[in-house]
Specification:
This protein has eight helices and eight strands; from the N terminus they run H-E-H-E-H-E-H-H-E-H-E-H-E-E-E-H. The strands form two sheets. The protein has a six-stranded parallel sheet with strand order 1-2-3-4-5-8. Strand 4, helix 6 and strand 5 form a beta-alpha-beta unit. The radius of gyration is 17 Å and the shape is globular.
């Protein structure tokens, strides 16, 4: 959420916010600006949605989806800076920050890079060790962050295809992005009930226990998908609730 910037509008946040329990809000490095951050925190508050920081590499032009070579100290500073920015807006609105979800290339690189995972965990411990860190289910980052003593939530993706290795298929690959709401809903139910997902090749793989399932705000069908997902989960007797009530 909150990925608009200046005069540029991205995503249908007002519609999506009605269906979710936790929102990852851009902190200005890949998208968002101070006014967008403030409005998005206010929107989440009005919809009783928990707020989380969505830090990324400093890459506005590439929307945070380009890999960068940075030192652990630099990365720690980037993450602390962005969490701090969103935390200030949350405090101004009388809202508590619930979680942190790295964005784009930072998220994908940290999933299997020990130094980066440690730097992110260290950033959170320096600010508030009770913040929940969202990590890619089945990734090396889980063990690394558990050892650091911070709270983690295993995350899976509803609208992104997986490889058979359990990582997200590169966006340049045909079929890596899933936009059909019914397909997304079926994937979510399987993830919630069985912890499994179909890969881009049609193979079923196990991701394990899932605490959070992501729908991207820039998905053109995000509101429709979120609506169908909620209805499908309700039919399956699966409750949607904030992360702080799960982990």
């Amino acid at each position: 959420m909150g990925e608009s910037f200046g005069q540029y509008r991205l995503g249908r946040d007002e519609e999506v916010m009605r269906y979710i329990s936790s929102a990852n809000i851009a902190c200005g490095y890949h998208a968002g600006d101070p006014s967008v951050m403030r409005r998005t925190v206010d929107l989440a508050k009005r919809n009783r949605v928990e707020v989380g920081a969505h830090p990324s590499f400093p890459d506005l032009l590439g929307f945070g989806r380009r890999e960068m070579n940075v030192s652990p100290d630099e990365l720690t500073d980037y993450v602390v800076y962005q969490i701090g920015a969103l935390q200030a807006f949350a405090q101004a609105e009388g809202v508590q920050l619930q979680h942190v979800k790295p964005h784009g290339a930072l998220y994908n690189m940290a999933a299997n890079n020990e130094e980066m995972a440690r730097a992110i965990a260290h950033s959170i411990k320096r600010i508030n060790k009770n913040l929940i860190l969202l990590v890619l289910a089945r990734s090396k980052m889980i063990e690394i962050c558990q050892k650091s003593g911070i709270r983690i939530a295993n995350e899976a993706f509803a609208d992104r295809a997986y490889t058979r290795e359990g990582i997200l298929a590169p966006r340049r690959m045909s079929g890596s992005e899933i936009n059909d709401p019914d397909t997304i809903a079926r994937r979510v139910v399987m993830l919630a009930e069985e912890g499994k997902v179909l890969t881009i090749d049609g193979e079923e793989i196990k991701l394990g226990k899932i605490h959070s399932i992501c729908i991207h705000g820039d998905n053109p069908k995000a509101p429709e998908a979120a609506s169908v997902v909620c209805k499908s989960l309700e039919k399956s007797n699966v409750r949607v609730m904030p992360l702080k009530k799960i982990v």
